[in-house]
Amino acid sequence: MAQPMTTTLTFDAPAAGAEAPAPRRRVADDTALLKAAAELTRELSAANPRIYWADFLTSAVIGYAALIATILAGSLGWALAFAAVSVLALYRAESFIHELTHMKHSTLPGFRAAWNALIGVPMLVPSFMYEGVHNLHHAKTRYGTSDDPEYLPLALMKPWTLPAFILIAALAPVGLIIRYAVLAPLSLLSPKLREAVVARYSGLVINPEFRRRPAEGEAKALWTKLEVAASVWAIALVMLVATGVLPLRAFLIMMGIASAVAVLNQVRTLVAHLWENEGEAMTVTAQYLDSVNVPPPTLLPGLWAPVGLRYHALHHLLPSVPYHNLGIAHRRLSAVLDPASPYFKANYKGLPGLMGKIARSSMTRGVRR
Questions:
Q1: Distance of alpha carbon 221 from alpha carbon 224, whole angstroms
Q2: Per the omega criterion (within 30 degrees of 0), is the bond before 247 cis?
Q3: What is the C-alpha separation between 3 and 125, in angstroms, rounded?
Q4: Which residues lie below 8 Å from residue 293, measured CB to CB, with a gap of 6+?
Q5: Could you tell me which residues come within 8 angstroms of residue 167 by beta carbon, excluding any fewer than 6 positions away?
Q6: pLDDT of amino acid 26
Q7: What is the DSSP string of 108-159?
Q8: CA angle centred on 151, ends 150 and 152, rounded to 5°
Q9: Distance between CA atoms of 39 and 43, rounded to whole angstroms?
Q10: Is 193 exposed, middle or buried (0-12, 13-18, 19+ CB in 10 A)?
């Protein structure tokens, strides 16, 4: 799951006289890996409604209960403790937007509506901001190219872009309120502004060059309903604060928790891939190797990469497998594949090592650009 809106990061042109980087060797598809992934996971594509509903509803209830507890806490210590619980729970609940883009909605009737009602609209990230966008990231001919809305060669860019990439996410809640409380209503009066809002400010993307096309048919109807709901909520929120009905302190706590959720997701996004592709089309195996798994026995990835996101590389091999079956798929493949298989080269131990790897690449390769 990428971040709201678009970043202001841009590609750095090579310095005059700088040595051009050596071309990367094209990675051929590993037929044994692709065959094993397909054959060993055929029956794992069915989603379990009980797991989805229980996990999502529990996360949402805990997240909002902890948010209220943070606002009502009588001491800073308790407030920070409740805030941490709220951030992690709401982050997990919000991460189900990734599942919405891959699931067959007929198998989980009402789930998308419930997610939007409890998380999408209140958090100002309705599902249309990801549906119709994230699927482009999985297109074989788009991944890692300039047409991929969720890709930037961060490991090859200037070192300062990495902290900027994370810190800019802290402003996401403010940007979303502006997008829905101000730009959406104004865009009804200006076709030109509406075109810009749809193309540039209606997707959870990180590629600043990406421009979204207008939705059509049923997707357009759903978009309209959700955008109206999000705009009404954003305007109401601003009015409640302006009139004093919602205390400023409570509003700032809400914004702080939403900001922390966005930053946590941006950190997770930073280590979801190695970000080493410079725009050329990649084979499926190359896409897998440019992506990241953080499998057990480490436990912390379950918090910062929830709802199956710890198996992000495997997800690129098996995008139709629901999150609760990715662990099973990982164990099956690990048990049968040769130790020299590329499959194991996408497995990493944890967040610090991944961030260090990307930072080192930026320091050594990005500074030459």
A1: 5
A2: no
A3: 10
A4: 310, 311, 312, 313, 314, 330, 346, 347, 348
A5: 263
A6: 76
A7: STTHHHHHIIIIITTTT--GGGTTTTHHHHT-TTTTTSTT-TT---GGGS-T
A8: 135
A9: 9
A10: middle
Helix (H, G, I), strand (E, B) or coil at 207: coil
- Type of residue found at 324: H
Instruction: Give the pLDDT confidence of 295-311 residue by residue, as tens digits.
Output: 999 999 999 999 999 99
Question: Is 97 within 8 Å of 109 (Cβ atoms)?
Answer: no
**281 Ramachandran zone, left/alpha/beta (phi>0; psi -120 to 50):** beta
For residue 368, what pLDDT is reported? 56
| 3-state helix, strand and coil shares in percent for the chain, rounded to the nearest 5 | 60, 0, 40
Torsion of CA 320, 324, 330, 332, to 10 degrees: -90
Q: What is the pLDDT of residues 107-149, one digit of tens each?
A: 999 999 999 999 999 999 999 999 999 999 999 899 999 999 9
Secondary structure letter of residue 340 according to DSSP: T
Token output for 325:
């079956």
- Give the position of tokens 């409604």: 49
Helices (H), 243-350: 248-270, 284-289, 301-304, 312-317, 326-336
The residue type of 183 is L
In this structure, are residues 237 and 187 in contact, taking their beta carbons and an 8 Å threshold? no
Question: Tokens standing for 116?
Answer: 């939007």
How many CB atoms sit inside 10 A of residue 181's CB?
21
Nearest of 272, 269, 280 to residue 27 by alpha carbon:
280
